[in-house]
Each structure stands twice: as C-alpha cells, then as structure tokens.
Specification:
It is a single chain. This protein is of the alpha/beta class. Helices cover 35% and strands 20% of the residues. The chain has an eight-stranded parallel β-barrel with strand order 1-2-3-4-5-6-7-10, surrounded by six helices. Strands 13, 17, 19, 21, 22 and 23 form a six-stranded mixed β-sheet that branches. Strand 1, helix 1 and strand 2 form a beta-alpha-beta unit. The two termini are 58 Å apart.
Length: 699
C-alpha cells in the first residue's frame, strides 16, 4: 500500500491559503491537512457560502493535492477547558465572545458541531482535534485529588461530547482526538477511559501522533496495537528527550526553542521515535489513510524540514507482504506430496491422509507470516526425513489442492490449541442494557479477549443485544496461559437468573458467557447493583460492579449510560480466628500462584508494631477482605472488628467469605447475609464459584 503523505497546515498559518497550496505542491506532497483557523479552512464561511467548499476543493485539485482531513484543534480545546485569557488567542472572535467560561464552552461545542457539517459539505470524513480537559490541572495529586473529581472530568467529556458526536454521526464524519498532554486523553489509560465513558461510539477515535507519547515514556507502537480500530489518522512527528540533570520532563516553564528543555520536537527521523516499527504496526492493523507531516522542529527551518520529512516518510512507508517468505519452499515440499500448510492438517505421518474434512477457522489475531520462521523449517525437515525413511510412496491425492487456501495465520492456529506455554494479556469486559422494566429480562454478557480486540467485542455484544452497553472492564493482571479456566459469577440481590455461574477456557480467542436476569414484576424502581466475580482456576482475582436501572415502564435507550467499576484484586486482607491459623496459613499461600499479595497479621506485622492501626490500614490498602468463616471466627470479637471496619469503609461487595468449616456452615452475621449469604443462613454467597474457592482452600 502507498499511503498519501500530506502536510499539516497548522504550522503554516502565517501564509495565505493560496501561497500554502503552491508551496505544498512545490514540496511534492500528495495533499494538505487543512487547519480550521485563518483562511486555510473557515467553518463559518463553509456553511454560509454556497461555493466556498467547491472553490477550496478546486484550488486543491488544480494543484494536484488531496485533502483527507481538516483539523479543529483550537476550538476543540475550548470544549472542556476551564477558560482563561490564553484561549482568546486561539479562538475565533465569534466563539470567544465576552470570554465568559460557560459561554465560550457552549459556543465551542456548537462550532465543533458545525465543523462536522462543514467537513461533510467539503467531502472529508475525518476531523482531527482536541477535547481540552477540565481536570488537566489535577494531574499531580496535591492537594490530594479525590477520585470523584477525576470521575467528574470524564463524565463531563460524555456530557459535552455525546451531543457533538450525534452530529458527527448524522454527517457520517468521525472525530479523531490527538492524544496529547492538556487533553482529557493523553496516554493509553486515559484514552481507554475516554472510550469507555463515550460508550465506544464509532464516531470517536484517535489521531495518532507518536511525538506526544514518546517523551512521556509511552510506547507509540503499544498505543497502535491497543487501539487498532480507533486509529483514524496518523501524524508524522518526532521528539527527543534531552534530560541533563537540570531541567526535568516538565521542562521548567521553558519554551520550545529553549535548548535547556527536558524534551523537544524534532523532524521525523531525528528524534527517538522508532518509525520502522510504527509502519509495521500500521500495516498489521490495516491502516491505509494519510501520513500527515507536522513541522515542529524549532531548530530547523521549516521549508527544509518539510522537504526532508517528505523524503523520509516516502522512504519509510512500505506495503506489507501478502505471502510468507518461505512460500516458495511450499512448492519444493509439494514435490514430495505435501506442503508446509499440509503437514499438520492433511498428513498423519507419511503416506496416510486424515479423513476429517473439518476446516480450521482463521485465528482472530492474524498477523504477518513471521510465525513460520519458528515452526516451518523444523517441521518440514522432520517430515522430509521421515519420507526418505519410509518404504511407502507418499500420497498426493488432493492434499495440496485442498489445503492451498490456508493462510499462514490459519496454519499458526493449529498450534494454538497445543501450546501449553503460550501466555497472553487478557481483558474481561461486561455488557448489559442500561435499564430494564419490571417483568422483563436483561441480558448480561461477559467477554474475555485480547486488549487488541476490544472494538470487535462491542460489535459482537450489540449483535446479540442491540441495547448492550459497555458496563465495565478489567485486565486480569497477569498473562494467562492457554487452557486456563475463568469462572464468572453474577449476583444481583433480589433478582432471579438461571445458571448464575459460568466458565470459559481461554484458547487465545475472544469468548463469552451470557446471564439472563429476570426483573420481578414487583421490583422497586431505582438502581440495582450487580457484581460479576471473576476467578481464575477457582482462585478469585477480581470483580466488576455495575448498575442496572429498574423502570416500571418500558425503558428507552439512551446514548450515554452510567458504567461500573472494575477491580483486579492485587492485595487481599485475611480475616480469621487465631485458632484457625494453621488451616488458614496453609491455604492463603495459594494466592501467590495468581499474583495476589495478602496481609495476614501473624506474618505481616513487625515485632513491636502497633497492630490495630496497622490492621486498619491494611484493610484500607486491600482490594478484598477474605473472611475465613468458622465457629471460632463467628465468636471472635477481632474478626468482627475487621469485617465491620471493611464493611463500613468499603461496602459489602468488599468482603468475600471462605467457609473452612461445615456443612453445616456456621450462621453468618445478619449484616452480611443479604449480599454474601443469599439470605439462606447456610453459607456464603449461593455461588458455586466461591464454594469451589472454599473447597480449593480446603484441599
């Protein structure tokens, strides 16, 4: 693929549009990314004047230049920002107005909507830009920043951008946020969070600029592979970190041209960005849009930098291979009656053909054919030697013809089921409707998937249930070996559901389970709190909480939904009676197998340490309180102090009982019965997952 190389006009706004078009043509670029300030692209005129867009397009066409995107960075910055005098310099007068914060925010929102309309009229499908951020000033947590302030900042993104994105959707235009310091999303985690609060709307994605990631210590290639379906535009820009022991990464309030800064922009290829790996990642994710050059190197004359960047980018870009490097070797193998693709699928030994016609589905993580470098030579050599040792002539009947269509990725898939050593990062995500009426059923879907496939998961969930919305997601925290079993248990107090526990075996592919929740006819309207407990090989590793709104009338879908909270357990507090110490100590050691730290007073307290404050602090620092339940634990005043403190400070979802005595299981406290003991009086939650957890501890 040959991607068009375009020049971003934002660094050239001192030139009139006509002069820039001519200069871009002389440089040899394929096109221009037009900035929506000065006369490069004027949103108000594009909508008010019938011939504005036609004339602008004709000027580009006459110069042989394309335009794939326009950019609204300046006005977008004012959508979420807390407005001050700096914004007057970057906004049109009709957006700035009197400078009142609320008024500027409101006018910026309308201008961004109009930018989508202007883009549609001009004939481009991407508007690059900023969002601003109401919480950027809270980045360093002092004075201490309560989590509620951060949540409010992302909620404001949903509140203000959902109406904007509604217009983008109507115009069939996408907004591409340039992930960037001072924006609501400035790294991988905040980008993920922004997608979540916007319910992963397809109108919202990213304009990828590696220069703003690398100096923060973020791997740009990881960003691409984390959001493969959200890369709507790509900037070519570079940066270099120049820390000298005097100026830090925050650059000491020094301007970009100051050599004392801790980092600075550089022309492409002159900084620290590994563009080779970026192009390979772009090939892997199938990006074929423009590569837009930004000239931000303060130490290089921009006309020289523009020419050099164009030459660098053209040499850098290349198309991915569509065949394996050893494809020709298949033809050699075919002389012996089999090809590499046939080795594991069609031939069992030599001279025998399998009778199964079962096809192998493509692996969801198809990648270039480099896989064969680790398997094909060994296998082909082994089978060739076997063929020479065999007295029987190899059968060629239909084998290569039947298997020639298999891709390298499909071939790789044959080994995926057999590889016990392969481990991968895995995410768990749940979807459910935002609300349900009494007497109805709500479908709760739980997916396990590679972080690379989050976009596909949303599509799958909405195919099953058109009202499905993202409700929460968590990483499992450790790389998961294929063949590991994950169990999921749903609990929503007072609701009914069949098969409350279900399991999935991780095979390297996206998989899911579904829970059908019936809302009783007499259910009280309001918020119902649900929890999905997650266990790996019967060991609890996390939970995801969410809210299902119960309505007495038939619910109406909405574009913005409250989400939940996901927790991957990293530290557990162990609450138990002293007489149960031998049993408990033996069992909690197994938590280490899944990377969960734990606090157990007999081992965790230091000699002479004040134990009561330390215990309470340990509870505060933990993700879950494991309540090892027995008659002794029920009688222990200190166990009661611990679970009561955990209940008061973290809520009832914080406590997970583990019965180490019974049946019958000692009667639970009344304060814990509703959520954890199901009101039955015979044990902890009526959840096979936790029962198996208890039995696992007892083993």
């Amino acid at each position: 693929m040959t991607r068009p190389v375009t020049l971003f006009s934002g660094q050239w706004v001192d030139l009139p549009s006509t002069d820039l078009v001519e200069k871009t043509r002389e440089f040899g670029y394929d096109g221009i990314e037009l900035a929506c300030w000065t006369d490069h692209f004027e949103v108000d005129k594009a909508l008010a004047e019938d011939d504005y867009c036609d004339n602008k397009r004709k000027a580009l066409d006459d110069a042989g230049l394309q335009c794939h995107a326009i950019s609204a960075h300046r006005v977008g910055q004012a959508v979420l920002d807390r407005i001050d005098e700096r914004h007057q310099a970057i906004l049109p007068e009709y957006v700035w107005g009197d400078g009142n914060t609320d008024g500027v925010n409101a006018r910026a929102i309308e201008e961004l909507k109009n930018t989508a309309r202007a883009a549609q009229k001009f004939g481009v499908e991407i508007v690059n830009g900023f969002t601003g951020s109401s919480i950027w000033h809270l980045l360093y947590s002092f004075p201490p920043v309560p989590q509620s302030m951060t949540i409010a900042g992302f909620d404001l993104l949903a509140e203000r951008f959902n109406p904007i994105l509604d217009v983008f959707g109507e115009c069939r235009v996408r907004f591409a946020l340039e992930v960037h310091p001072t924006e609501i999303a400035f790294d991988i985690h905040t980008a993920e969070r922004a997608l979540h609060v916007l319910n992963r709307r397809p109108e919202f994605g990213f304009s990828f600029d590696p220069s703003h990631l690398i100096w923060q210590g973020i791997d740009p290639v990881k960003f691409l592979r984390r959001f493969p379906d959200r890369i709507y535009h790509v900037q070519i820009n570079d940066a270099i970190v120049t820390l000298d022991g005097e100026s830090g990464i925050n650059c000491s309030h020094l301007n970009f041209s100051d050599v004392r800064r801790g980092w600075s922009f550089r022309g492409p290829g002159r900084g620290g960005v590994n563009f080779e790996e970026i192009i390979r990642a772009l090939n892997d994710i199938g990006y074929n849009g423009p590569l837009s050059v930004e000239c931000e190197d303060s130490g290089m004359k921009r006309s020289i930098g523009a020419r050099e960047a164009l030459e660098f980018t053209r040499k850098l870009d290349f198309s991915p291979s569509t065949i394996s490097f050893d494809a020709a070797f298949d033809e050699v193998c075919a002389d012996f009656g089999f090809g590499i693709d046939a080795l594991d699928e069609g031939v069992d030994g030599v001279g025998s053909q399998r009778t199964s016609d079962e096809s192998i589905p493509p692996h969801p993580e198809d990648s270039p054919a480099s896989f064969r470098s680790s398997h094909s030579e060994r296998l082909s050599t082994s089978r060739r030697e076997e063929s020479f040792r065999s007295d029987a002539a190899p059968s060629t009947s239909g084998i290569n013809e039947n298997l020639r269509g298999l891709t390298p990725a499909s071939f790789r898939g044959m080994f995926d089921e057999q590889s016990d050593e392969q481990r991968e990062e895995v995410d768990c995500t749940i979807f459910a409707p935002p609300s349900a009426g009494t007497g109805e059923a709500a479908l709760v879907q739980v997916f396990i998937h590679s972080p690379l496939h989050e976009g596909d998961v949303l599509k799958t969930a909405t195919k099953v249930d058109s009202r499905a919305c993202w409700r929460g997601s968590t990483s499992l925290g450790t790389e998961l070996a294929r063949g590991s079993q994950l169990s999921f248990q749903l609990t929503i107090p007072r609701f009914q559901y069949e098969a409350p526990e279900q399991s999935i075996v991780w095979r390297g592919r996206t998989a899911s389970v579904q829970f059908s929740v019936e809302i009783p006819c007499g259910a009280k309207a309001g918020d119902a709190h649900g929890t999905i407990y997650v266990a790996q090989d019967s060991i609890p590793i996390g939970q995801i909480t969410f809210i299902l709104v119960v309505e007495t009338a038939c619910p109406t879908p909405s574009g913005n939904h409250a989400t939940g909270k996901a927790t991957r357990f990293s530290q557990a507090f162990v609450s138990y009676a002293r007489s149960d110490t031998p049993d408990v100590t033996k069992r909690v050691k197994l938590l280490e197998a899944v990377g969960i730290r734990y606090f157990q007073d007999v081992f965790s307290l230091k000699p002479g340490e004040q134990w009561l404050p330390r215990i309470y602090k340990a509870i505060d620092d933990s993700d879950v309180l494991l309540l090892f339940w027995s008659r002794a634990a029920r009688a222990s005043s200190w166990v009661e102090k611990e679970w009561r403190y955990g209940l008061e400070t973290n809520g009832d979802g914080f406590i997970v009982p583990v019965a180490i005595e019974g049946p019958p299981i000692p009667e639970p406290p009344s304060e814990l019965q509703q959520l954890h003991f199901g009101g039955t009086g015979i044990g902890y939650p009526p959840m096979p997952i936790w029962k198996r957890f208890s039995r696992w501890f007892q083993s």
